[in-house]
């Protein structure tokens, strides 16, 4: 891509809820077609962000099923379908996440929270699937450990990853929640994430963006 060309997509972060989860709105530059990734809540804020980006949302992508990532998916789907007059499917994560997605209201109640709904994906994803936002393709990698059905979305041409809660700047996803497994998460990072290459930039589910190469060198959880 030459310097005078527009990038193929734009992305806006909408930190949502008290968990400050990185909900993102990803929009294909050429068409304005977009997707919302991990709408954990604060749906009015997400809708305002979509309007600000002048986007038409074609799908909602989930990296995993924890309430801070998926608790607003059902409400956002309903709002977008009413606004746009057509279907807006919830896509992902892997079907191993079904129990966690169904349990969102119960999990929220344990935190003293209300207004979170169970999410029912219209399409489950598998290792090796490819999803599109407009004409932009993302490869799906199943990366369990933080949760059994976690997936990441890899845009190879741009060297960009929607990482969810698999790997963070200086840390990794927590594994002390139900269905978490530390060894499995480390294996996912070692076998699926790191081989993608040091140049890949990633957006995690919380905190700032980082680069695979920087984490390989400095992240204490994956040294050695």
Average pLDDT figure: 95
Series of secondary-structure elements, N-terminal to C-terminal: EEEHEHHEHHEEEEEEHEEH
Indicate the structural class: alpha+beta
- Strand percent estimate: 25-35%
Q: Describe the global form.
A: globular
Give the secondary structure arrangement, pairings included:
Elements (H helix, E strand, L loop, with lengths): L8 E8 L4 E8 L4 E5 L5 H10 L3 E6 L5 H4 L2 H12 L5 E2 L6 H5 L1 H7 L19 E4 L2 E7 L8 E5 L4 E5 L2 E2 L2 E2 L9 H12 L7 E4 L5 E2 H7 L6
Parallel strand pairs: 3-4, 4-5, 9-12
Antiparallel strand pairs: 1-2, 2-3, 6-7, 7-8, 8-9, 10-11, 12-13
Give an account of the 3D structure:
The protein is of the alpha+beta class and 224 residues long. The chain is built from seven helices and 13 strands. It has helices at residues 43-52, 67-70, 73-84, 98-102, 104-110, 182-193, 212-218; strands spanning 9-16, 21-28, 33-37, 56-61, 90-91, 130-133, 136-142, 151-155, 160-164, 167-168, 171-172, 201-204, 210-211. The strands form three sheets. Strands 6-7-8-9-12-13 form a six-stranded mixed sheet. Strands 1-2-3-4-5 form a five-stranded mixed sheet, with helices on one face. The chain has a two-stranded antiparallel sheet with strand order 10-11. It is globular. The N and C termini lie far apart (36 Å). The mean pLDDT is 95.
């Amino acid at each position: 891509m030459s310097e005078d060309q527009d990038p193929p997509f734009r992305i806006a972060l909408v930190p949502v809820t008290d968990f400050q989860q990185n909900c993102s709105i990803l929009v294909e530059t050429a068409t304005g077609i977009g997707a919302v990734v991990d709408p954990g809540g604060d749906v009015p804020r997400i809708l305002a962000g979509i309007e600000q980006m002048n986007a038409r949302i074609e799908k909602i992508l989930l990296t995993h099923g924890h309430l801070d990532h998926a608790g607003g998916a059902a409400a956002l789907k309903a709002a977008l379908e009413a606004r746009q007059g057509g279907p807006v499917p919830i896509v992902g994560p892997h079907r191993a996440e079904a129990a966690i997605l169904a349990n969102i209201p119960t999990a929220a109640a344990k935190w003293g929270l209300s207004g979170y709904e169970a999410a029912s994906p219209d399409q489950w994803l598998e290792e090796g699937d490819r999803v599109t936002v407009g004409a932009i393709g993302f490869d799906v990698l199943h990366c369990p450990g933080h949760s059994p059905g976690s997936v990441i979305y890899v845009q190879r041409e741009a060297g960009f990853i929607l990482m969810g809660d698999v790997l963070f700047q200086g840390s990794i996803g927590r594994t002390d929640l139900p269905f978490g497994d530390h060894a499995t998460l480390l294996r996912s990072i070692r076998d699926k994430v790191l081989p993608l290459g040091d140049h890949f930039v990633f957006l995690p589910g919380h905190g700032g963006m980082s680069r695979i190469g920087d984490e390989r060198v400095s992240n204490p959880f994956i040294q050695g």
